Amino acid sequence: MYCRLAVLMKERDTRLSQRELSRLTGLSTATVNKLHNNEFDRIDAATINTLCNHFNCEVGDLFVMKEVEETT
Known about the structure:
72 residues; mainly alpha
């Protein structure tokens, strides 16, 4: 699964930083950073809901199925 948070942030507001998104949504900076960099193992439904509400988008706009290379 691939998170498109970085793409949505650029599309909606090129000046929106991870820290500002964290402040606006109430999500932790660590959570926003992990999603932005696709370094997450799981995600809470409330986090998905918060981001979809903020960006006025559907879950499918935020996450897509995509092969991710595993590092060993």
